[in-house]
Amino acid sequence: MYPIFIRIGDYAIRWYGVMIAVAVVFGIFYSRKELMKIGVDEDTFFDYAIWVIIVGVIGARLLYVFGNTPLYYLTHPLRILYLWEGGLSYLGIIIAGLIFSYYFWKKRGNIFHKVTDIVSIPLAFGWAIGRIGCFLNGCCYGKPTGLPFPFSITFTNPESFAPLGIPLYPTQPLLSITGFITLFILLRYKNKVKVDGGVFTLFLILYSIFTFLIEFLRGDHYQIFGLTASQWGCFLIVIFAYLFYKSSPSLKHEKEKAETSDSNLSEKPQDDLKENKEDMEN
């Protein structure tokens, strides 16, 4: 593939970084428009956008560093800052961004679940286009396979991170395709899901399913008891998705509303009986 977008002297900008930048720009424009619809002012939005991007990148880098080759980065600490070389964990973006978003919006009204629904679209888009960057970069590559093209990819560029000259499973295109499928599903149903946080829950479930399946083809991850760390993480994500959905304020509101309605119904017959008794005495 072609990992280098442009060279400026000894400095090279990789396609991976370009794709991440495109995803960030899309996320800013989309989230700004949607958040302003629910009453978020522009200053608050930009405060949130700047910090969630910074926190997301830090989380993505740290999870990648400590989840892949921590000993290498401990002996070469400055290379942790070399983001343009690739090496960002998508799951790290979600985890760090989610934690920061919770504390940011907790102080600004009860809209955390609404915000997660909105950012689900940029997250799905970033997943889809970011994996194109992985494909061009040669990272996140698959296991060797004897299948012909297009069921395999052979990397030949010496600047790629993938093994060269060996047919590999096309994990990056598969991840990108599933990202676009997820984006399509979210856009299709985002206005039909009535529970705040429901769209984000759907995103987490789809991400977990697709990631779990494609991880069987990955050639750059070590296995722990037969599964990769990402696959074990998918189980935790699904559990979190369920708990997150159940914690939605709109679900609690509907429950309280139903309990109030049931209480009124149970009191009504007693009121009617009391009125009938008074009529008989009169």
Give an overview of the whole structure.
The protein folds into two domains: 244 residues, no CATH class; 32 residues. Helix content is 66%, strand content 5%. The chain has nine helices and four strands. The strands form two sheets. It has a two-stranded antiparallel sheet with strand order 1-2. The chain has a two-stranded antiparallel sheet with strand order 3-4. Helix 2 runs antiparallel to helix 4 and helix 7 packs antiparallel against helix 8.
Number of DSSP helices? 9
Main sheet characteristics: 2 strands, antiparallel
Work out the count of structural domains.
Answer: 2
**Can you tell me the residue ranges where pLDDT is under 50 for at least 5 consecutive residues?**
none
Question: How helical, in percent, are the residues?
Answer: 55-70%
As a whole number of angstroms, the C-alpha radius of gyration is 24 Å
Structural class: mainly alpha
H-E order: EEHHHHHHHEEHH
Tell me the β content. Answer: under 5%
Distance between the termini: 94 Å
> Mean of residue pLDDT?
85
- Order of strands, widest sheet: 1-2
Number of strands: 4
Shape: globular
State the gist of this model.
The protein is mainly α. It has helices at residues 15-37, 42-67, 70-75, 90-106, 112-137, 171-189, 198-214, 229-246, 249-281, and strands at residues 4-8, 11-14, 223-224, 227-228. 66% of the residues lie in helices and 5% in strands.
